[in-house]
Amino acid sequence: MPPLITTRITTPDNSEVIRDRIAEILLVESLGQQDLAEAADPPESPDPWVLRIFTEASNPFEEWVLQDEPADAQAFIAPIVNVSLDNAQAEPRGSNKVSRQRCTGTYNVDCYGYGVSKETDEGHDPGDQRAALEAQRAARIVRQILMAGHYTYLGLPRGASQFVWGRGVHSLTVFKPAIDQRPVQRVMAVRLQFQVEFNEFSPQVEGEDLEVTSIAIHRKDTGEVVLRTQFGESSP
Amino acid sequence: MNLRAAAAADAKAFLEDVDGFAWDITVTAPNGTTAVLKGFTTDIGLAIDPETGTAVTSRRAGVALPIRALDAAGLGLPQAVADPKKRPWVVSFKDPDDREQTFKVTGTAPDRTLGIVTCSLEAYYPQD
Fold first, then answer.
1. Which residues contact B89 (CB under 8 A, 6 or more apart)?
2. What is the pTM of this model?
3. How many angstroms separate the CA of residue A174 from the nearest CA in chain B?
4. Over 60: is that where the pLDDT of A65 sits?
5. Which among B58, B84, B86 is the nearest to A65, CB-wise?
6. In whole angstroms, how large is the CA radius of gyration of chain A?
7. Cβ contact A124–B50 (<8 Å)
8. Pair A94, A103: CB distance under 8 Å
9. Best CA proximity match to A114, nearest among A79, A63, A82
10. Mean of the pLDDT values across residues B72-99?
11. CA dihedral sign of residues A111, A117, A118, A120
């Protein structure tokens, strides 16, 4: 059987486009928040708004587990956010069988916070509490960015080219490791499950002209309706 | 000596056997009392995910110490300290490459049958 699709499949699926768009929004807005902090009067430290953004990373926080905190620690300890596609469910009612499927995609936006216990003048700064607060703070920033009105359609095309129809946070889950599973470096995670409604499209048949036909409808003086047709190059 | 006492004595002997796996461990109580004891240490980089059975990167550290040695040093039983207004129990030991690692005790599992306490550890940075 010969292949029927005559064009190469090079365009990413909209599920991929949306995943990358979520990461782009978070990075751009994180940088924007840092600029706003520095531009404030009086200027504020941009550090609380630093987020390190990853997509589809399986172990983005390994350096926290294996390395000691460096002297210049801010870039090291900034929360890590990983965006990954979890699943996309098709909705037959909003779809057609030929070219378009209405889907709801679920994206896991995982926010990791880091904390190491440190001695203080008063006592010590518990690492588990620090990690949990950092993870939840990162989740706060992420949720408020993605749910901002400006990003109702993720800043993607509207009108005839629109393919995103809505978005929302489905759930927020905090991961707490079991007591006997706690690692040396405290890393806590908060997962935002973010759902996006969108269309997916697919390659279509490229039609070819078989025969040119024209039909003209006329009414004679007698009221009779007649058709004048022309097929190809033939005379009408 | 009955068998149970003999087992407890043997356990202490194993933990403190300098020709075996015993290692120098510095234990510091929240009140500042410190002592160097002998015991077992672990600091590994892989763990088995209990849900999937696969190996995952996860640094886990712990020590096992004789309870009698802790009592003799005037330290008592270590425990996790969550209060930020208190110093935690601090444990430090060197790795085989002579690098000193400092930890905070995050969990304690005393075995009062054999007189051994096992402590789970997390990274801890003392003030300079």
1. B27, B28, B29, B30, B78, B79, B80, B81, B104, B105, B119
2. 0.79
3. 18
4. yes
5. B58
6. 28
7. no
8. no
9. A79
10. 91
11. positive
